[in-house]
Amino acid sequence: MRRRARASGEFDLIARVEKRTRLPRSDVLLGIGDDAAALRPPAGQCLVACVDALIEGVHFPRATAPADVGWKALAVNLSDLAAMGAMPRWATLSLTLPRSDPAWLDGFLRGWQRLARRHRVALVGGDTTRGPRAIAVQVLGSAPWRKLLRRSGARVGDSIWVSGTLGDAAAGLALVRRRLRGVNAADARFLRGRLDRPEPRVALGVGLRGRAHACIDVSDGLAQDLGHILVAAGVGATIDAECLPVSPALQRAVPDARRLLAHALNGGDDYELCFTAARARDDRIVALGRALGLRLTRIGRVTAARGLLLRTSSGRHVEYAARGYAHFR
Amino acid sequence: MRRRARASGEFDLIARVEKRTRLPRSDVLLGIGDDAAALRPPAGQCLVACVDALIEGVHFPRATAPADVGWKALAVNLSDLAAMGAMPRWATLSLTLPRSDPAWLDGFLRGWQRLARRHRVALVGGDTTRGPRAIAVQVLGSAPWRKLLRRSGARVGDSIWVSGTLGDAAAGLALVRRRLRGVNAADARFLRGRLDRPEPRVALGVGLRGRAHACIDVSDGLAQDLGHILVAAGVGATIDAECLPVSPALQRAVPDARRLLAHALNGGDDYELCFTAARARDDRIVALGRALGLRLTRIGRVTAARGLLLRTSSGRHVEYAARGYAHFR
Fold first, then answer.
1. Could you tell me which chain A residue has the CA closest to the CA of B329?
2. What is the dihedral of CA A103, A107, A108, A109, to 10 degrees?
3. Whole-complex ipTM
4. Which residues of chain A does B125 touch, with a Cβ-Cβ cutoff of 8 Å?
5. Who contacts B34 (Cβ-Cβ below 8 Å, separation ≥6)?
6. Residue B91, min C-alpha distance to chain A (Å)
């Protein structure tokens, strides 16, 4: 990797990164320290690769604890692998910092490493440069090609599922921005934790291999991300508004039913998985959720008629006009 | 990949990136467009991965043409692969732009794609975000593990070689910063071209597989980068100052012999390869250079005594105190 920008102490930064992120894996032949890393690819599987960057002030509030930034930078990438049914293996990190700040870096690496250890992800390449704080992460994983979970593949009649609860992270962000008030301390902590420390659903993704027809992670809000699945297959969906899984904390924080529904449908950054599977597999999906200790909720079904219909509590069907993160703000 | 930040037109950016960087490869099972890419790893080879970021104002002058930025962002990464003897296969790109600027993006992608086509590198993942202009690139290639070129491995008695010419890019940067004047237009164009459009020495790296004992790319200046090779093997080197390859343009631009030597020793950003090989292979290295149409110069030899000795034109040996890019400025 290029060393030029690592003048005046940045060599130390890379050494620091290497020291604090050690995680032995037999498929890492050569880690940080040469011009590039050498990795042993998995036999009989395909590689799964993605990249995601976090910019301070755009993807995380400026006041975010460095450990949370480190966690989240890795988590959002692992979430993409999870959505493919891939097992994570290696990561590279490109870190831009406004100044040499060992305390911030140590915090960042602590959060990163905590999640990395949990999923056994080895950091194999790093690059540090000076500039406005930004983090670009690339992760590599593997999966059997024939069992890869793709966005396309949803079939009419499929059940639509979502993991965990929806809208919590958006409420966490609203708290930071002081657009949500009067929330009790425990609920605020929970909601903020959902924003700062999303749990990539890696085990669920692997469990869904060969079972789900289509899968995506919910980063921009359920409506928009489910929309990608529907467009990819040229199908539609009916969603039961009543079924959307929301946490007790979110229900208390946003008691108004309409606003609560908006959070569940449009709130981004939850990093849950939304997937479709044959109705005949409903029981096995339920069993999988139980085995993983993870709430899996059937929220609707795939329809031949395009578009997204919302079935409200009164039984009415309302056509949902796609509104994403951009418009939600 | 995360879509959240791609609000207000950034979906279009990714579509634009995808459209303008198409390059079919049979080992890309799934490219841009799902949560992650799926790639078929090479049988019997190891993967070689590296990451490198360019920040505007730090790694390239603000006035740099977007096509040059696109070229260089890929080139510096391919140079790392070249230094390992790896063949490039795939790349991912994380692009941070201050605003939606299709003209800049198109220019960037034109430069990128020109180099990508030459080396058959497929862009398989992309992420665009808002912020101060920055580009993080990750490239993946492959090489036979046993023939990988590493920094370590230099042996006492080895010849030390360098490709191309040294110091041109540093002079190009000095021109941009108006620290170098009175250079004729053709020479200025050449030197600036060496800064903006470095040629990653991929074919040389592959040709050196199993022949070179150690290899690194010259990004921070010959003295510093050769220093990494020496430290890794616990050896030293004697360099013939007279032998350092400098271009006629650089000789004209920097007529003073001492300053010229400083450029050749300390100038960064040339992205030539510096490598060591057994003296018995000298003829084959010369033949390789001839076959590739690339100047390869034997500049010295590896010694048991640590440190870097410089043999001057008068035959004197001067101990070279390692000075890198940071101090050069």
1. A7
2. 100
3. 0.90
4. 49-51, 138
5. A84, A150, A151
6. 10
